[in-house]
């Protein structure tokens, strides 16, 4: 099933993402209907490998190039073969902010991600919502699953960006003007990959 589109800013009640980015400066929300039940679809979210949507598109996008923090701390430029949520938050500045098992998984990171060389800063989940140091921005990534009829699921990918000051917002807007086409393409590829994995694991969809 194709995704249902992109919206500039959307807030949905009872989402964990609302706790950490209730009033984002910018957001992108995409949906996809999956031919699998919610349990199967959420299992595909939990097992999703970010490297499956790699290649030139990912490496061109400033947003995703910061995910594998293994590039830092003198470990060389090797790219991990696998990058799940747990891998992404191990020895990096990304953190798992919260989870509603079977429904939503939320991760986040703080940094100056509009710079040519991104400056990340680790902020623990308990401090993330209130963090507002000038010069930094916050990214909240949410993947959620809801029932869509009796046998299908609605898979949602929500990215929200919050900026601490007007100067950071101005710099982010310049970055976004260049990077947004790549980022939106990666979002679509992420949804497509998760949906494929869920549908392949669903015997009723075969």
Q: Can you put this structure into words, describing what you see?
A:
This protein is α+β, with helices and mostly antiparallel strands. 32% of the residues lie in helices and 27% in strands. The protein has a single domain, classed as Alpha-D-Glucose-1,6-Bisphosphate, Chain A, domain 4. It has helices at 17-20, 38-46, 56-60, 62-65, 85-88, 125-128, 166-201; strands spanning 3-7, 26-34, 95-100, 104-112, 119-121, 137-148, 152-163. Strands 1, 2, 3, 4, 5, 6 and 7 form a 7-stranded antiparallel sheet that branches. The model is unreliable at 6-12 and 59-77 (pLDDT under 50).
Main attributes of the structure:
single chain, 206 residues, alpha+beta, Alpha-D-Glucose-1,6-Bisphosphate, Chain A, domain 4, seven-stranded antiparallel beta sheet, 27% strand, globular
Q: What is the beta-strand fraction?
A: 25-35%
Mean pLDDT: 81
CATH topology: Alpha-D-Glucose-1,6-Bisphosphate, Chain A, domain 4
Using the alpha-carbon principal axes, give the shape.
Answer: globular
**The biggest beta sheet, please?**
7 strands, antiparallel
Query: How big is the Rg?
Result: 16 Å
């Amino acid at each position: 099933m194709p995704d249902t589109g992109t919206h500039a800013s959307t807030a949905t009640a009872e989402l964990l993402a609302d706790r950490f980015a209730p009033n984002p400066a910018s957001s992108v929300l995409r949906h996809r209907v999956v031919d699998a039940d919610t349990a199967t679809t959420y299992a595909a979210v939990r097992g999703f490998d970010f490297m499956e949507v790699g290649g030139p598109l990912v490496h061109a996008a400033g947003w995703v190039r910061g995910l594998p923090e293994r590039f830092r701390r003198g470990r060389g430029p090797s790219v991990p073969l696998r990058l799940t949520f747990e891998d992404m938050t191990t020895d990096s500045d990304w953190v798992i902010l919260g989870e509603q098992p079977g429904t939503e998984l939320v991760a986040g990171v703080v940094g100056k991600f509009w710079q040519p060389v991104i400056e990340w800063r680790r902020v623990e989940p308990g401090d993330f919502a209130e963090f507002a140091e000038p010069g930094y921005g916050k990214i909240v990534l949410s993947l959620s699953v809801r029932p869509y009829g009796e046998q299908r699921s609605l898979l949602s990918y929500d990215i929200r960006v919050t900026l601490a000051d007007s100067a950071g917002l101005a710099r982010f807007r310049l970055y976004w003007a260049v990077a947004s086409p790549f980022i939106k393409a990666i979002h679509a590829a992420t949804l497509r990959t998760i949906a494929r994995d869920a549908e392949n694991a669903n015997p009723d969809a075969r």
